[in-house]
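chain below, 172 aa
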Amino acid sequence: MKKTHVFILALLAALGFVSCKTNENNYRAAYQAAIEHREEASGVDSTIYARIRNQAQETLLAVGNDTLPVRTEYIGYAEGGGASREKVQRYNVVVGQFKQIFNANAMRQRLIASGYPDAMIVNTREPLYYVVATTCSTAAEAAELFNKIKADKNLVLRSPLPFVLQPAHFAR
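prediction:
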C-alpha cells in the first residue's frame, strides 16, 4: 500500500513539473499582449515625465537677424548649484542637461574654470538638471551670449544644446 502511495505522489509531482514549464506559445501570447497594449497607447507616453516634458513650451524668438530656440519651463534651484530666484533672470543660456546632479556640478565647475563665472544649475520637475552658462535680462543680450557660446571651441555641445531657458514665472 505504501508503494502505491509513493508511486502516485511521484506521478503527480512529475506531472506538476511538466505542466509548469513555459513554452513558445506562452511567450508569443505575452508578446502579442504587449504589442496590443503599446498600440492602444498610440504614441502617447503615459509617464509623469512625458506629461512634464509636454508642458514645456518650445518656441523660436527672433532677435535682430538671429533666431533663438527658447524653452519655457517651471524650474527649481538645486542646492549648491549657484542659482537662486534672485540670480536667475529672464533669459538663460543652457549648455548642459543631465539626469544626475553630480554630472551637472562637474560641468558647472568646468565652465567656471573656462571663464563663465556665472554658471549655475537649475532643475525641472522631472528632474533634469540644466547647466546655465550665463543669465541675462534682455533678448538682445541673450542672442549675443548665445552666439558667443556657440562659437566657443572649448565647449562641446550636442543638439538640442545650446538653448535659451525662460523660467515659467517670467512668461506670465
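The radius of gyration is 27 Å. Strands lie at 57-63, 66-73, 76-77, 91-98, 120-123, 129-136, 163-167.
thats it, cya
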